[in-house]
Amino acid sequence: MKILLNNIDLNEALFDNSNIGFVPTMGSLHDGHVSLIKKSLKLSNKTIVSIFVNPKQFNNKEDYKKYPRNIKKDLKILEKLKVDFVYLPKIKDIYKGKNKIKIKLNKQDKILCAKHRKGHFEGVIDVMTRLTKIVNPSKIFMGEKDLQQLLLVKRFVEKDFKSKIIYCKTIRDRNKLALSSRNMLLNKNSLNKAGKIAKSLIIFKKKLSNNKNLKDLIFIKKNELKKKYDIKIDYLELRNTENLKLTNKIKNAKIFIAYYINKVRLIDNF
Ligand code: AMP
């Protein structure tokens, strides 16, 4: 496994390689990341994993500072997986001397996390455009846990580059809680609660299939979760999985949730 600390290292290493699989991450790796990496190892000639906590996508400075970082452990995990390259850029490798990228979301895009975290996706699309330009991969592996992110990056990146976005399933723990680096910020009690919320939404979604008043049921569910688990919910909505439009039909739809538990913001979809 080669560790690439800057863009010169990266260009040297990737020169002459084709069918490169790219797994962009912010580190603090867990089995969700591992599943993306394994898929890339299977489908690509070479796999490169980046670890970069992108300051531009944090709409809150405290959140950026608090974001868990575990580089030593991450490198051990990547070594064990036999990843070909790990890219650990500095801020200047990504942002210095590069042209400003102007990203404008449509009005229809300003939903879910785009509505609640102002500037977040502009930051994500900006860094993903820059990373794609630098790495020039054939495939980029992304998690369905962050489906809104995946769909936006897919639209912007596939418009300008040949790289294809590959969807990867959400990996959950024993309690059905979606794995997330942010889970490390939760105590046992909150982790337990978050698992119960996930389980309850999985069951809820199954029951919705035969029902007609979906909007009302979701409204009731939102209030029930708020009260029962003492959480602040940014959104709980049923949306189409391809265009993210609000829907009243269960077909091709998922329930999207974002909520704060003990000041930690978690997102998921079912
Ligand atoms: P992050 O390090 O949180 O920016 O995530 C890097 C990539 O891993 C993104 O494409 C995420 O969607 C994906 N990811 C994060 N958590 C999971 C999970 N539990 N299952 C599958 N993919 C995930």
Task: Chart the SSEs and their pairings.
Elements: E1 2-4, H1 7-14, E2 20-25, H2 31-43, E3 46-51, H3 61-66, H4 71-81, E4 85-87, H5 91-95, H6 112-116, H7 120-135, E5 139-143, H8 147-160, E6 164-168, H9 188-208, H10 214-229, E7 232-240, E8 253-261, E9 264-269
Parallel strand pairs: 1-4, 2-3, 2-5, 3-4, 5-6
Antiparallel strand pairs: 7-8, 8-9
Helix pairs in contact: 7-8, 9-10
Can you give a write-up of this model?
The chain contains ten helices and nine strands. The model has no long low-confidence stretch (mean pLDDT 96). The two termini are 36 Å apart. With 270 residues, it is of the alpha/beta class. It folds into two domains: 167 residues, Rossmann fold (3-Layer(aba) Sandwich), CATH 3.40.50; 89 residues, Pantoate--beta-alanine Ligase, Chain: A,domain 2, CATH 3.30.1300.10. Helix content is 43%, strand content 19%. A six-stranded parallel β-sheet has the order 1-4-3-2-5-6, with helices on both faces. A three-stranded antiparallel β-sheet has the order 7-8-9. The site of adenosine monophosphate has 17 residues, from helix 2 and strand 5. Adenosine monophosphate binds next to helix 2 and strand 5.
